[in-house]
């Protein structure tokens, strides 16, 4: 279902992937710096989630400024929260690369607001860009360290923007419940020599869905 989401005096293009049965939970998903919502990994993940009963709303926001991307993400979350068509108990925010930075920033901002109502259940970071290539001294970890909801990282072990030991170091300092799933030998674009894109995407999709399921169950025991 295609929708246009109001954002300031503009609109963001977005697509709902809707499960057959009425969903209780949703995932809001966005792309990295170079792509849009039709990036194959996002399309694949959205279809996988919807086929397993999770609503997925993915959107395009062009703009290379994380603050701008975060504002757009916030607008999409508000839109979904107020939607009459889909009454959800909660959502997970998910993004690829720069999109996951924007998602982390939104969660940190919302958790610092007094009106945090528990609508946001967790964060999924696909290829989180912890640092610029070869610039290992400056880490983009400030939002991660302030988040308290559950976080899943899915990263390539050969990601040139997320050195394995550095991410493990940041994660060990995080207060939030967290998990890292390493895609062996994958780069920042999740390409692995000798494996098809579909094969890698299936691994990512399965990891994301099983983590979502665990975290929804944890909160409703």
Automatic annotation (TrEMBL):
Domain of life assignment: Eukaryota
Gene: Tex30
Source organism per UniProt: Pycnonotus jocosus
Signal sequence interval, chain numbering: none
PANTHER family linked: TESTIS DEVELOPMENT PROTEIN PRTD (PTHR13136), TESTIS-EXPRESSED PROTEIN 30 (PTHR13136:SF11)
Gene3D superfamilies reported in the protein's UniProt record: alpha/beta hydrolase
Pfam families found in the cross-reference section: Abhydrolase_11
Protein name as annotated: TEX30 protein
Domain KANL3/Tex30 alpha/beta hydrolase-like: 27-208
Xref: InterPro entries: AB_hydrolase_fold, KANL3/Tex30_Abhydrolase, NSL3/Tex30
């Amino acid at each position: 279902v295609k929708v246009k989401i109001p954002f300031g005096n503009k609109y963001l293009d977005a697509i709902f992937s809707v499960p057959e049965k009425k969903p209780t939970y949703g995932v809001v998903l966005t792309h990295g710096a170079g792509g849009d919502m039709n990036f194959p990994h996002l399309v694949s993940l959205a279809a996988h989630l919807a086929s397993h009963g999770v609503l997925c709303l993915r959107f395009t926001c062009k703009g290379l400024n994380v603050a701008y991307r975060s504002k757009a993400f916030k607008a999409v979350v508000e839109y979904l929260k107020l939607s009459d068509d889909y009454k959800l108990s909660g959502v997970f925010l998910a993004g690829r690369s720069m999109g996951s930075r924007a998602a982390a920033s939104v969660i940190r901002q919302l958790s610092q607001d007094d009106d945090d109502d528990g609508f946001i259940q967790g964060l999924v970071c696909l290829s989180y860009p912890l640092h610029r290539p070869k610039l290992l001294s400056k880490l983009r970890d400030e939002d991660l360290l302030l988040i308290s909801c559950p976080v899943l990282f899915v990263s390539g072990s050969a990601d040139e923007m997320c050195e394995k030991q550095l991410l493990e170091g940041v994660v060990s300092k995080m207060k939030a419940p967290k998990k890292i799933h390493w895609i062996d030998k994958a780069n920042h674009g999740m390409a692995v020599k000798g494996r098809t894109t579909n094969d890698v995407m299936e691994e990512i999709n399965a990891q994301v869905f099983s983590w979502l399921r665990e975290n929804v169950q944890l909160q409703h025991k």
